[in-house]
Design goal:
heterodimer; A: about 675 residues; alpha+beta; five-stranded mixed beta sheet; two-stranded antiparallel sheet; 7 strands; about 60% helix; flat; B: about 120 residues; alpha/beta; five-stranded parallel beta sheet; two-stranded antiparallel ribbon
Chain lengths: ~675, ~120
């Protein structure tokens, strides 16, 4: 780095002194401005006045004076510094300011306590490599090796003082970045691990082992707050930030409280547990590493749920914090059914090997911190959250609600009061069930959609079956009410939900499913069902129309093996002609919809929607004729004009005004009119 | 002389069961410990209080609570370390009297001391 020396005539020397002094004041004012006193008009005015004065003074300097160039840079820099709100940009501009200030006469080391950015490098002693890093630190790949390089690059005999100031400066910048990233809510575990790693490297470089140790505990606590905030109370979180702030800014070391365990009975119990857990975890990890098993079994997650509490009981707080993070990492993989990466498995193997009371004392200093940082670096980025639109009462749009789901337990935190209570107070007959039918179906529908969204297909499949059972009961009440089958089904659903709520893979009762399917196929007038042509003749009443359409859809669904629910509501009596026309039109439309759904089943699966779909038909009399509405919740796309045109050509000519629209959360809605001359409203 | 009321701890970790046993004994309970997988219902001696861990190896706290609630009319505590609302809501639906967050402290368990349970203070 080239040092710029002021000329030696007295006026120039005085000018240089004044400019240097003003530069110092300017830096302090800018720091105050950046450090929380933003938008204070007097402060900004002071900066502007100082800048103007410096500009006036510099005009008296010789034209080739070395101060000219940095002062010109300063003129451009100041407006940007006062205007920017973006912390990374601000950091870069500040680095430039320090660089300019450095070129305006060396100044003794300054420590103005009380400012958040109090410590700065003594300008003449900053190694060029560090300055370069300060300018580019946003892009820098900062490793502890860099610290050593900087250290080696300092030739100044006072480098001990220099390196301390450098470290202070870097720590401040990193802390600032950490706080800002955290506040923005954008800090991922990987990002946190990166920043903590840089901070740790700086402290190691500084060689303050007490501060390093205190930082390791605080960094682990921060990692825990990041990946499992519920575990650390708000007060503890605040204390952690305060301690970190004091450590990095003021060098006040406050070690997190630890309580070494001297309870022999408890330690023996911990050792016993570890002796049970360690070999089991190692066995599963080895299988996964060897490629024998992709996903770690649930018991590995369970053991990592227990381990932090065991380690805390044994007074191993640092390991306990590491294992709290391990549990969250394994849980995340289990939730999304994703295998651990080979690097993560290797890390798990390493950490598991030390689950032994005797080995803890032999762990090298900083080993736990290194594991912690590695774990954060390998953190799984979960897929984007899924927003599921669930209409509890499809007919009333205002009751549609948005549920944001990342897992079944989140869904279960909603109130499923009917599902939970129906097993305890069961209905022995259809009359007892009737008042609860709708509420139960609403809850099942919500659960089915939620389970599909979070890919817990066992719950989804079982909900679909139960819904089919309810539909059958509603449409054609059987001679013998299946009280026992219903009770067993709800009992099993609760078991599945209990398993899902505890993150266990739900296990379907195959025998019960077979029994439900058998009941569905062999109950009612249409059993056993098979695909057939519509019953000859015309429907004589709306009830008969509903019955014939239901049988038609059931047979279609059975043929294409597509789980399908069908509801029909007829508001008034219709003429025989209207009944026939409605039947023909609906059968055509339903056939198209069912076949479309078969083709779109893979798309629905990818869109995290249930496999089963519901078609609802509503017939109502109007002045111009019979209005027919068909709602289908399996698709969200409106049928195109071409499709509608094709569909229109297949419908009877008395069918008019065919439209298709989508209703949020309820899928597609078709509407058409069967004209008056056919409907004969006199009926 | 009246025998001390019985509290059952269903926990498969020896250390965590020991910690809980000590706390409950401080409150005046006679404590029995069982691993979930080996739990035989009805419990003998009959419990005044049962503490069930939500997550266990080969066991599920919600299911256990349902089984115990079907057999015993007693105070049932579900212990969890996950910090999720689900545990609370679903735990209560599964039959828990209360859901406690780990680490369990004496202060947390104090409302379920035998004398308070007898007086119906926890009802």
């Amino acid at each position: 780095m080239t040092m710029l020396t002021p000329q030696h005539d007295s006026v120039t020397r005085w000018l240089c002194q004044q400019l240097s002094l003003l530069s110092q004041q300017l830096v302090e004012l800018v720091e105050r401005h950046c450090g929380g006193e933003r938008r204070q008009a007097p402060l900004i005015n002071d900066v502007v006045v100082l800048g103007t004065t410096m500009n006036q003074l510099q005009q008296w300097l010789p034209i080739d004076h070395a101060f000219k160039q940095p002062l010109q840079k300063l003129r451009k820099l100041l407006p940007a510094l006062l205007q920017t709100q973006d912390p990374p940009v601000l950091i870069r501009l500040l680095s430039h300011l320090y660089s300019v200030h450095q070129q305006l006469e060396p100044h003794p080391a300054i420590t103005t306590a009380g400012h958040w950015l109090a410590c700065r490098p003594t300008t003449s002693r900053v190694p060029p490599r560090l300055l370069q890093w300060l300018r580019l630190q946003q892009q820098a790949d900062w490793l502890s090796a860099d610290c050593l390089l900087i250290h080696n690059g300092v030739d100044d005999p006072t480098n001990e003082v220099t390196s301390g100031v450098i470290v202070d400066h870097c720590l401040t910048l990193l802390l600032w970045q950490l706080v800002n990233d955290w506040r923005s809510g954008q800090l991922t575990p990987m990002g946190l691990g990166d920043l903590l790693g840089k901070l740790w490297a700086m402290l190691k470089f500084h060689g303050d082992s007490t501060a390093e140790e205190a930082f390791a505990a605080l960094a682990q606590q921060l990692a825990l707050i990041c990946v499992h905030p519920q575990l650390v109370s708000a007060e503890e979180q605040l204390r952690c930030w305060e301690a970190l702030w004091n450590l990095l800014e003021q060098r006040q070391v406050a070690v997190l409280p630890t309580s070494p365990c001297t309870d022999i009975e408890l330690l023996q119990a911990v050792q016993l547990d570890l002796g049970r857990y360690r070999p089991r975890i190692q066995h599963h990890v080895q299988r996964a590493l060897g490629g024998t098993a992709l996903l770690l079994p649930h018991e590995v997650v369970v053991m990592h749920y227990k381990l932090p509490w065991l380690l805390a009981a044994a007074g191993q707080e640092a390991l306990a914090r590491l294992y709290h993070c391990w549990y969250q990492s394994l849980l995340l993989h289990a939730k999304y059914k994703l295998p651990l990466s080979p690097a993560l498995l290797a890390l798990l193997a390493d950490t598991t090997a030390t689950l032994n009371l005797q080995q803890w004392h032999a762990l090298p200093t900083g080993q736990i911190m290194r594991w912690q940082l590695r774990l954060l670096a390998l953190w799984l980025l979960p897929p984007a959250n899924t927003v599921v639109e669930v209409a509890l009462q499809p007919a009333v749009a205002t009751t549609a609600m948005t549920v944001q789901l990342i897992a079944i337990p989140t869904l279960l935190s909603r109130s499923f009061s009917k599902l939970s209570s129906c097993v305890a107070a069961w209905f022995i007959a259809d009359d007892a069930l009737q008042p609860h039918q709708q509420a139960l179906q609403d809850e099942l529908l919500l659960l089915e959609k939620g389970a599909a969204a979070v890919k817990v297909h066992e719950v989804e499949i079982f909900c679909s079956l139960l819904l089919a059972l309810h539909h059958k009961l509603e449409a054609a009440p059987p001679r013998v009410f299946p009280a026992d089958l219903l009770w067993r089904s709800y009992q099993h659903l609760l078991e599945l939900l209990d398993e899902a709520a505890a993150w266990e893979p739900p296990r379907l009762d195959v025998a019960l499913i077979a029994a439900i399917k058998q009941w569905l196929q062999h109950t009612g007038d249409s059993a056993p069902m098979m695909l057939r042509e519509p019953t000859p003749g015309a429907p004589a009443s709306t009830e008969q129309l509903a019955q014939r359409l239901r049988a038609f859809v059931e047979a279609l669904a059975l043929t294409v093996e597509q789980p399908l629910r069908f509801d029909i509501e007829t508001a008034a009596a219709l003429s025989p002609t209207a009944l026939t026309l409605c039947e023909n039109a609906l059968m055509t439309l339903l056939r198209v919809l069912v076949l479309e759904q078969v083709n779109a089943s893979e798309q629905r699966r990818q869109a995290l929607k249930p496999e089963a779909t519901t078609i609802r038909v509503l017939l109502s009399n109007g002045e111009e004729g019979v209005w027919v509405e068909v709602n289908e919740d399996g698709a969200d796309d409106v049928s195109g004009q071409q499709t509608l045109k094709r569909l229109r050509s297949k419908l009877p000519e008395q069918v008019q005004r065919l439209t298709c629209r989508t209703v949020p959360g309820q899928g597609r809605n078709f509407r058409f009119l069967v004209e008056n001359d056919a409907s004969a409203t006199a009926w | 002389m009246n025998a001390a009321p019985v509290a059952w701890v269903v926990e498969d970790s020896a250390a965590l069961a020991l910690q809980l046993r000590r706390l409950l004994e401080t409150l005046g309970y006679q404590v029995c410990i069982a691993e979930a997988a080996q739990l035989a219902l009805p419990l003998q001696p009959a419990p005044k209080l049962v503490c069930v861990e939500l997550v266990g190896i080969d066991s599920n706290g919600f299911k256990l609570l349902r089984r115990i609630a079907a057999v015993h009319d007693c105070q049932r505590l579900l212990l969890t370390a996950t910090g999720r609302n689900t545990d609370h809501n679903w735990g209560l639906r599964a039959g828990a009297t209360a859901v406690l967050q780990r680490p369990c402290t004496l202060a947390q368990l104090a409302p379920w001391a035998p004398v308070l349970v007898d007086n119906g203070a926890t009802k």
